[in-house]
Write a structure and sequence with these properties.
It contains ten helices and twelve strands. By secondary structure, the chain is α+β, with helices and mostly antiparallel strands.
């Protein structure tokens, strides 16, 4: 099921739409709706073409309008998006998609690599599996396909780090706490799946983990070093 957001459900108005450029600029600086992120008022001011004082006023305005929340950490200003801001960005993405009459897709190309075997454990946990079925529409094979992106594609993974995706909540089983994971529906050589953006990972920034209802190594006859293409739906 598509995660589309209607104008009526968001209460989208011209005032909110005027804030979209500011939200997109904050996305560029890594602001998301999960973690507080420190911001540099001077750098933001240079990008906008104004003063740090005016940027601070803009931040306060976005806070008053329920688009961001602020916190002071060791005397430094940090912010994160509210759910309303993420939904507004999603609304813009969906609107552009409808205008173009096609899905917005990021193409990632890389080579298959071996992981540490942790994927099979995590993908078998009920706390994750139930959410994957509910939010992605499939039960993933207990394992992930690890892909090291080619240098010219690695930069596009940064978009996934900051764009709102489908969020799988973290949970605790009473003994251990497991972190949340953001994901994006994707296709791998025509097979359905999803790319995971994991909060805590041992992989480098240029590596992605892909899940699917299929064991992709078998279905696509893949071995380490093989090149694969992943089309990520925004």
């Amino acid at each position: 099921m598509e995660n589309t957001v209607s104008r009526a459900s968001l209460g989208i108005d011209y005032k909110l739409l005027r804030r979209i450029p500011y939200l997109i600029l904050l996305v560029k600086y890594g602001i998301n709706d999960r973690d507080y992120t420190a911001i540099n008022l001077t750098r933001l001011a240079n990008d906008i073409g104004t003063t740090p004082q005016n940027v601070f006023k803009i931040i306060n305005r976005l806070t008053d309008e329920g688009l961001i929340v602020k916190a002071s950490v060791n005397g430094q200003l940090t912010i994160k998006f509210t759910q309303r801001a993420s939904e507004a960005l999603r609304f813009v993405i969906d609107t552009i998609r409808q205008y173009l009459d096609e899905r917005l897709v990021i193409r990632l190309v890389g080579n298959v690599i071996s992981g540490l075997g942790e994927g099979s454990f995590y993908m078998s946990l009920d706390g994750y599996v139930k959410q994957f079925i509910e939010k992605l529409g499939f039960k993933p094979y207990p394992g992930t396909l690890n892909i090291k992106l080619k240098p010219e594609y690695a930069k596009y993974k940064l978009y996934l780090d900051v764009l709102p995706g489908i969020y799988i909540e973290g949970f605790s089983n009473g003994v251990r706490t497991y972190g949340g994971v953001k994901c994006f529906k994707a296709s791998i050589h025509g097979l359905p799946g999803a790319v995971l953006v994991i909060e805590r990972t041992h992989h480098g920034f240029d590596t992605i983990e892909v899940i699917s209802p299929y064991r992709l190594r078998d279905e696509l006859s893949l071995k380490d070093g093989d090149e694969v293409e992943v089309l990520v739906n925004l």
